[in-house]
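INFO worker-7 received task bundle
INFO bundle size: 2
INFO processing item 0
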Amino acid sequence: MANGNNEPKIYDALALPPQALDNGGAEILRAGIIDDELYVTARPSFHDPGKWGEVLAEIAKRVGAIYAAEGLNVDDATIQIAEAFAAEMGAQPVPARGGNKAKRSAKSRPARRSEKKSTAKRKKR
């Protein structure tokens, strides 16, 4: 190996759920972190790609429950996941209840990825 380390590299894969071993099924999504980068393999399992939104929401709820088993509040964990997902997708932040409800202007909110790209293109011209 280039780094001089002769130890084999290990990928820490999750075990299959017992129900899969008992009943069969199909894996539709696998995600892993390798060298701090996300890698995803997925099947286009649904005729309507919008169905993935339902699947991702259910995954968020179940991951929130996993964090709850580690001592966090399930609602808080799930909300944190949902808020991070929405922000990554470019949604506007929702003010906390009872907080400042003034809408943020386009200048004060973070640029969406598509806006960042278009701004970069304009600068090159």
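INFO item 0 finished
INFO processing item 1
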Amino acid sequence: MKFYIATRFSNELLKNKAIAIKNELEKLGHNMTFNWMSYPSLKPYDQNLVEASKIAKLDLEGVIDADFLILLPDSNGTGLYVEFGVAIAQCLMTKSPKIYLLSDSREMLLFNYHPAVIWKKTLEEIISDL
């Protein structure tokens, strides 16, 4: 299956967790639709217009092409919630991707409670649901 992981780029702990999840899922034969983690930071975006535009397009295409998305939430994140919103909209239109929110906390965002969102506390729970 194809997957996408959404989390805050500048949160090193979450980014490292996303890399570990990516590696584990790839060992199981799944493929990440777009590996945004392999790119350097493009901030300030207005000084990297061409590359920022390219990555923004690839990020959202990655969400749309995924069979499932894993969201690692961060209350200070921004782009990850754009990806999350695109995943919900895509799911409403096509029933895909399956959207997993990987967290112990449920408080951060109203849309965490959307019926399309599946709460899991561990990657193992997600894997067993696939």
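INFO item 1 finished
INFO post-check item 1: The two ends are 9 Å apart (CA to CA).
INFO post-check item 1: The longest strand covers residues 2-6.
INFO worker-7 idle
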